[in-house]
Amino acid sequence: MSQLLRLEKLFDLQGRVALVTGGGTGIGWMIAEGLAANGARVYITGRRKDVLEQAAAKFEKEHRGEGAIIPLPMDVTEKSSISAGQEVIALKVGRLHILVNNAGQTGPVTPFLNDTNAPEHKSPETLGRAMFDSASFKDWSEVFSVNTFSIYFMTTAFLGLLAKGSKDVPGYTSCVVNITSISGINKLGQVQLAYNTTKAATAHLTKMFATELALKKVPVRVCSVAPGVYESEMTYPTITPDMVDKIGKSIVPQPLQRPGSAQEVAGTVIYLVSPAGCYTNGQEIVVDGGYTAVNPSTR
């Protein structure tokens, strides 16, 4: 038993097969690199094949002899593309142990919302009309399609392979990790109400999947990780300490006054998908430097 408590056993990813959506850049890349550096065979997806190939080449150069990064072009908003990706992994390896639903995008914003001196705040009528005019149903649908709908279709498409992964390793249970955000927990709109709503919906979808699969005795766990302010291609590639609160649009300053690191988000995911995390199901872990501890949140 004492040998099982050693770090290399607790967080053993040797031989695991993983898929990370949006895995070529930002938080997705941080997670994919962390999984592969610890021995996993990681498929990274995205719509830009060149970005995926560059990421895979970078990993091969810096981590030769460890795990592997394999590019797998995929559009997570298209069922046919998801099915094609599922067929590739079914044919090549026949199982999946780890699915990280990370792909995401920002949505319509209302920059005037937090500026109470802006003309839109002249009256409830002008504020409501400005918010009404700031986006279309299509704008909201598009961000929901990537941030929430895709998680339903990815998880269901790969469920059979994930169940096979659980049978592949004694005492291990495959895991889906959905990357949500503190924006889904934050009671502040952060001038991006559509995005925040998609992340809250994804957090609840995570819990429903975990419960329904457990009740149906499907051997697949489902959890989520909610990052705070992190550097990414989608938001800011570089974040200095003075930018943290501007990006987070907080009322109270974030206690650590810095963005999160690759180690912190990848390490959290590694815990969930490793033997150490096999007793954890249906949970959302917040990795935000204390942002939601000091600002209005649903937690």
TrEMBL record:
InterPro entries: NAD(P)-bd_dom_sf, Sc_DH/Rdtase_CS, SDR_fam, Sec_Metab_Biosynth_SDR. Keywords: NADP, Oxidoreductase. One of its GO terms (molecular function) is oxidoreductase activity. Belongs to the short-chain dehydrogenases/reductases (SDR) family. This is NAD(P)-binding protein. It comes from Laetiporus sulphureus 93-53. The lineage of its organism: Eukaryota, Fungi, Dikarya, Basidiomycota, Agaricomycotina.
